[in-house]
Specification:
This protein is mostly helical. The protein has helices at residues 2-13, 24-30, 37-46, 76-83, 96-99, 103-106; strands spanning 22-23, 58-59, 88-89, 92-93. A two-stranded parallel ribbon has the order 1-2.
Amino acid sequence: MKNDFFEQVYEVVKLIPAGRVSSYGAIAAYLGAKRSARVVGWAMNNAHGLPEVPAHRVVNRNGLLSGKMHFNPPEAMEERLANEGIEVKEDQIVNFKAHFWDPAKELAL
């Protein structure tokens, strides 16, 4: 079951456009597993061998780069976001709400 959920997470994360970010909780809620934000985080930690999954675009609910220690080097998460035009100061996305991509709204039918 975990692998199926991870695959669902990856499919949503692949849809996050460059220059936008989402949160673990927003992705979990979209997948109908509102209380599984931590499992989404585990999926992101597991995604580093999957170049097609932009794990750097998933942050915590406050825009904090809480997963940066799982990148090699840890600065890679911030560098990738900066390359997409997202400013980060002290591990926090500047103007987070303007960059936030909510799959429940963006992928609504």
